[in-house]
Amino acid sequence: MAEKSEKKKAKEPAKKRDGGVKVKKTKSGEKIVKEKKDKVAEDVKHAEKKEEVSGKPVEEPKEKPEKKVEKVRKEKPIVKIQYSAVGQLKVSRKKKPRFRRDELYKCKKLKDVWRSPRGLDGKKKEEKRGKGALPKIGYKNPAGFYGIVKGFKSVIVSNLKEIEAVNPTERAAIISASVGRKKRNAIIEEANKRKITILNPRKGEV
To answer: Averaged over 136-150, what is the pLDDT?
Structure first.
């Protein structure tokens, strides 16, 4: 066994590695030395050559700090609404019972919000006496009172042509929610000239 191990050692070429140096033996017995390329050392040499040619030390490129530009929004002027009177139309609504949900008095966790009864044998659904009223179409107000706000019949307005057609004695304007500040200011100015009331003033307009 010892003889076999000695033969294997004799066949294998001698290799030594000391600090990046590689030594090999050829068949004739000559030694070949190969040095590993060191990238760091090459970069240092390259930088030194540049310093010798230019005479100035080579500096690493610095990252430029990004400038933060703050955008300032210009606030558009707000036109004041002059007319917000109460109209002459009076609404006489019907007296209605208070509609309460089923078994509200039994459970404390139930909120006082109307919910229609859905039980098959519920006494409220069968309209038994003493169980409370159900909402019906008979409780509605006359059609002539629909759309009356502050004694005026309301009209939705979205441009100047529509506000010019409004009669200030009978009707009042509600400016559409999609209208921007510029067009809204123009509508308010026109309404002030014609003495038209606007029912949905925004913050700062009154």
So the answer is: 84
